[in-house]
Amino acid sequence: MSTPILEISGVSKSFGAIKALTGIDFSLAPGEVHALCGENGAGKSTLMNIIAGVLQPDEGDIRISGERAVIANPAAAQRLGIALVHQEIALCPDATVAENIFMPAINTRRAPLMNFRTLQAEAQKVMDLLAPIPVRTKVGDLSISNQQLVEIAKALTLDCRVLILDEPTAALTEPEAQRLFAIVRELRSRGISIIYISHRMAEIFSLCDRVTVFRDGRYVATDEIAATSPDEIVRKMVGREIAQLYPDKLAADEAPGQPLLKVSNLSDGSRCFDVGLELRAGEILGIGGLIGSGRSEMAQTLCGLRPSASGDVEIDGKPVRISAYADAVKAGLVYLSEDRKGSGVFLDMSIAANVSALDLGKLTGKLGLLDRRAETAQATELAKRLGVRMAGVGAAVSTLSGGNQQKVAIAKQLSVGPRVMIMDEPTRGIDVGAKAEIHRLLRDLARRGVGIVVISSEMPELIGLCDRVLVVREGRVAGELVADELSEEAIIMLASGVSNSQNTKQQAQNVA
Amino acid sequence: MSPREAEAPIMTAQIKTEGQGARWNLARLGSMREAGLIVIILALCIAMSFASPHFLTWGNFRAMLMSFSIEGIVVVGMTILLIVGGIDLSVGSVVAFSMVVSGALFLAGLDPWTASLIGIAVSALIGAVMGFFVTVVGLNHFITSLAAMVIVRGLCLIVTKGTPLSLFTLPPAFKAIGQGSFQGVPYVIIIFVVVVAVFDFLLRRATAFRKVFYTGSNEKAAQYSGIRTKQVKFWVTVLSSTLAGFAGVIYMSRFGAATPTFGAGMELNIIAAAVIGGASLNGGSGTIFGAILGMALLSVVTSSLILLDISVYWQDMIKGCILLAAVSIDHLLHRRKA
């Protein structure tokens, strides 16, 4: 094989104490489409950001066409012919397509004035290679898929040799995705090398030449697509022992109690469709799925945090109407946000004030005054039960570690005596010790009859903690896995739409 | 066993008296700013008492108190609005409009008390309209109140055709609010102290105002706690305008006139006072006591400059520098902590 256009060897990167990449190797041949696979958090995005100059590696070599290269910043990456199309669109919505396409060129332009006529003519030339989008349109007026095409056009103007596409089909409809695939093939035929990050096996098998798998920040294997199978890739993505110890699950002879939560036909018309689920006392129900599959939106719709178009909800056998989150709280249904700092806690407020936020009425006296003594007592009590390590309940939440902040967020929910708790990524970004504590706490609550739903991106957490797991794909429940059926392979199969190995080839052909 | 009984021990937090130490900790953090301001104000007063024999007199203090008492009522509303993450540039215009509307109604034959109530109600209505644009239409407070500032000032000029209304016929009982005193203490100062005390207490203790802090600290998290943040923002906007309207009526009583151009530029002084007193433009923090201290500092500085015979042209520049210094010190202290 000829000299790789891009060769990575022994690259490591740490963020504080967390090792995101450990001795990664990766090589990209000229004119190939190379798939990069791995679970959420496997290190794909970190590596792409290193290649695109956004991050600097702690150690390791990057070679471009055989020569050692230091990619100090995104502009350096552009000069080397490396372009990254982010998963999230990073365009200026108020500027025209033409201005967006030539943003990097305008940035380095020396002349003081803009020549719009040439700019637009040049932009239209590039855009027409992809799709007939008028370049004088404002980017904000385009559909998401067309915005994605503008991103790619922008990458093409850099005269790039390496194009990185990070989950490009996540926001696309099927026909739009088809158009993108045609474009990717066209680019390959022009000799551009493409790194294609995706979770969708069907796409990978129809589009790519080789596939590299990462797991937990480490390189696992690179295979020719023709010589592997979706099953094998999934196995390589997962292939780890579950290291942490999880609390005991419900034993086979412990039948779960009466239904606590029953949901049917829940839809919001955009991100979740026709969702039905039942949760029984004593069990922990897991909800898995890829990022962007609509897991969180589903839970938020259920709790009245997003408007719903239809759906029936029963709590404790009684039908409830939920039009705002306050209704859900009143009915005993609470939601722990996945974004702890953004919407879970009030960082600059005291622990006590955080715990009482969900039900101020309980702490309010006749005159509308807050009983601060009761507030302090409640926070002290709950913080003690959950083992929050703190100076006192008067300390600001920002002074706590991530794990303890999360405990405060959970204490807030417990303060209302909930019947059902929906925990969205309850252990994201917290250390192993606190993680195990929270797992034990959730199991303990379940045993006491509180309904627990855990939404998680971490396979081991779903498998180790939950009695039953629903897998969500594109806003719908793709399947349910119970007891022995629970495995990472099974979850990924359902989440990425590979139902079994026989019809994968079939799907691959459908895509092609 | 039923799950409901089983959950009881962990779910219902027993209400006991504990954790005094922790609360003291929080109180100390919050009052550091206020203590600092008090020290600065006292230091300035002591220095001035040596520099000028007129400074440390009841007459001078009374003049200083009078000068910021009525503005102080407006500062109360502004501080609460800053805590929720908003801002109100229209307060100066609303003060004038409240004066002008009440004055015009009085001249049209209404008794001054009813006329004043209507003036305050109209001010509240202006707040409600701004609240509508902020919460329903979704504009931000800055732009909405900037527009209101200009529109309401225009209304003042339309109502009065640009000339001040002379209200020397106001009955003495009404004039007494702004001009009279009780046992030597002007009513204006008494009203100011009562308003400040009531709102300072409510802001610290009332559940409704706690929601203001939640909303300003992290609006998303407040929504995720079931707090209707739009309602909170709406009512705080109304409150700020209402207090401005109340201040306008007192000014009318004090001056016995309604001037359509009165209070132009007042909003900057008021925002500066609140910010010096610890309110953040990002919302989530601030106290009324602190804001009043900020107001007092600016007032002492003004008074000192006058007594020291420094040209009035220097006043604005020096006030601006104080604002910049206060905010910079605060920012640097916070950054070090984080």
Automatic annotation (TrEMBL), chain A:
<protein>
    <submittedName>
        <fullName>Ribose transport system ATP-binding protein</fullName>
    </submittedName>
</protein>
<keyword id="KW-1003">Cell membrane</keyword>
<dbReference type="GO" id="GO:0005886">
    <property type="term" value="C:plasma membrane"/>
</dbReference>
<keyword id="KW-0067">ATP-binding</keyword>
<keyword id="KW-0813">Transport</keyword>
<dbReference type="InterPro" id="IPR003439">
    <property type="entry name" value="ABC_transporter-like_ATP-bd"/>
</dbReference>
<dbReference type="InterPro" id="IPR017871">
    <property type="entry name" value="ABC_transporter-like_CS"/>
</dbReference>
<feature type="domain" description="ABC transporter">
    <location>
        <begin position="255"/>
        <end position="499"/>
    </location>
</feature>
<keyword id="KW-0547">Nucleotide-binding</keyword>
<comment type="similarity">
    <text>Belongs to the ABC transporter superfamily.</text>
</comment>
<keyword id="KW-0762">Sugar transport</keyword>
<dbReference type="GO" id="GO:0016887">
    <property type="term" value="F:ATP hydrolysis activity"/>
</dbReference>
<dbReference type="GO" id="GO:0005524">
    <property type="term" value="F:ATP binding"/>
</dbReference>
<dbReference type="InterPro" id="IPR003593">
    <property type="entry name" value="AAA+_ATPase"/>
</dbReference>
<keyword id="KW-0677">Repeat</keyword>
<dbReference type="InterPro" id="IPR027417">
    <property type="entry name" value="P-loop_NTPase"/>
</dbReference>
<keyword id="KW-0472">Membrane</keyword>
<feature type="domain" description="ABC transporter">
    <location>
        <begin position="6"/>
        <end position="241"/>
    </location>
</feature>
<dbReference type="InterPro" id="IPR050107">
    <property type="entry name" value="ABC_carbohydrate_import_ATPase"/>
</dbReference>
<dbReference type="Pfam" id="PF00005">
    <property type="entry name" value="ABC_tran"/>
</dbReference>
<keyword id="KW-1278">Translocase</keyword>
